[in-house]
Automatic annotation (TrEMBL):
Main location: cytoplasm
Sequence similarity: Belongs to the Fur family.
SUPFAM superfamilies: Winged helix' DNA-binding domain
Subcellular location: Cytoplasm
Cell membrane found in the keyword field: no
Transmembrane segments annotated in the record for this chain: none
Cofactor(s) of this protein: Zn(2+)
Binding-site residues for Zn(2+), renumbered to this chain: C137, C140, C177, C180
Species, as recorded: Pseudonocardia bannensis
PANTHER family: TRANSCRIPTIONAL REGULATOR FURA, ZINC UPTAKE REGULATION PROTEIN
Keywords: Cytoplasm, DNA-binding, Iron, Metal-binding, Repressor, Transcription, Transcription regulation, Zinc
Identification of the protein by name: Transcriptional repressor
Length: 194
């Protein structure tokens, strides 16, 4: 199909309205006298980018892998728990272990970057082809990309590398995001009035 959605991504749904994508509705079936939800058509990798990335890396193309890569393309800097919740919305039941396995395999293959800001859970992103750094909010953990001013790796080198073959420097800029800065200002103003 031209949209990159494979037949395995679709579950036939009785009563699916013409033009409905499956995101908007769940159909139901009668199972032993109870109403049970049936998963509707939910595209896992609508543009096929995740499928292409997996194939180029020599990894098996599976629904969980495609769903994880596609979800992270839309939600960068997500934790494993956030990825798991997002993928479950698309696929239904996916184990936490399966999500961790997919994240590990894709990071090992260079399809994902794992970042670990001190004191915060590991986060994952699809932006892997360049040397960039991160801004991290000390209060809420919000993480944003910031381009490296040097551009090439490593952008910093130690004065004494002690024999290490340094190939990367990870720079994290810490501070408060705009939302937390505003909240901090409101809190400070409230305390000043007391």
């Amino acid at each position: 199909m031209s949209c990159g959605v494979e037949a395995a991504d679709r579950a036939p749904v009785a009563g699916l309205a013409a033009g409905a994508t499956g995101h908007e509705l769940l159909a139901h079936s009668r199972e032993r006298g109870r109403v049970a939800p049936i998963m509707a058509f939910v595209p896992v990798d609508p543009d096929g980018a995740a499928t292409q990335s997996l194939r180029a890396a020599g990894l098996r193309v599976t629904r969980p892998r495609r769903a994880v890569l596609a979800w992270l393309a839309e939600h960068p800097h997500a934790t494993a728990d956030e990825v798991g919740a997002g993928v479950r919305e698309q696929l239904g039941s996916v184990s936490t272990q399966a999500v961790y396995d997919v994240l590990a395999a894709c990071a090992e293959a260079g399809l994902l970057r794992r970042i670990e800001p001190a004191g915060h859970p590991a986060r994952f992103e699809r932006r892997v082809g360049d040397n960039h750094h991160h801004l991290v909010c000390r209060r809420c953990g919000r993480t944003e990309d910031v381009d490296c001013p040097v551009g090439v790796r490593p952008c910093l080198t130690p004065g004494d590398d002690r024999g290490f073959a340094v190939d990367e420097a990870e720079v994290v800029f810490w501070g408060l995001c705009p939302t937390c800065t505003t909240a901090q200002g409101s809190h400070d103003n409230e305390e000043a009035r007391l």
